[in-house]
């Protein structure tokens, strides 16, 4: 569990980036439509921070090439992104926001 901060520190319509550490990628946390969402921060199309994207409802638009991702599933809804980003569970306990990151993906070694 990664503490993010108090819920009032992330106003509706805003996002922030947290460093997960321990081999995890950075995570973008969003507050939209009364709910909190967390996805991997890096766009699956190219190296851009989704926490710096444009938030509309349950979707975030990548600031680099306008790929659109569903915050609930991590699925891209348009090109150029084709691969989803991972989603992470978010909980609120006593006014504190926590992200539960998924286990980091195992890196496959290139076979020569």
TrEMBL record:
Keyword Oxidoreductase applies: yes
InterPro entries the record matches: Rieske_2Fe-2S, Rieske_2Fe-2S_sf
PROSITE patterns per UniProt: RIESKE (PS51296)
Pfam families: Rieske
GO MF entries: 2 iron, 2 sulfur cluster binding; dioxygenase activity; metal ion binding; monooxygenase activity; oxidoreductase activity, acting on paired donors, with incorporation or reduction of molecular oxygen
Keyword Iron-sulfur listed: yes
Keywords, sorted A to Z: 2Fe-2S, Dioxygenase, Iron, Iron-sulfur, Metal-binding, Oxidoreductase
Domain Rieske: 2-99
PANTHER family registered for this protein in UniProt: 3-PHENYLPROPIONATE_CINNAMIC ACID DIOXYGENASE FERREDOXIN SUBUNIT, FERREDOXIN-RELATED
Name of the protein: 3-phenylpropionate/cinnamic acid dioxygenase ferredoxin subunit
UniProt organism field: Streptomyces himastatinicus ATCC 53653
Taxonomy of the source species: Bacteria, Bacillati, Actinomycetota, Actinomycetes, Kitasatosporales
């Amino acid at each position: 569990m990664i503490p993010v901060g108090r819920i009032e520190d992330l106003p509706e319509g805003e996002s922030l980036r947290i460093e997960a550490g321990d081999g995890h990628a950075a995570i973008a946390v969003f507050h939209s439509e009364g709910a909190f969402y967390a996805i991997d921060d890096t766009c699956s199309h190219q190296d851009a921070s989704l926490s710096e994207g444009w938030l509309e409802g349950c979707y975030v638009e990548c600031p680099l090439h306008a790929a659109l991702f569903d915050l609930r599933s991590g699925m891209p809804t348009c090109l150029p992104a084709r691969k989803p980003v991972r989603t992470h569970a978010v909980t609120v306990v006593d006014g504190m926001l926590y992200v539960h990151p998924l286990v980091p993906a195992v890196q496959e070694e290139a076979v020569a």
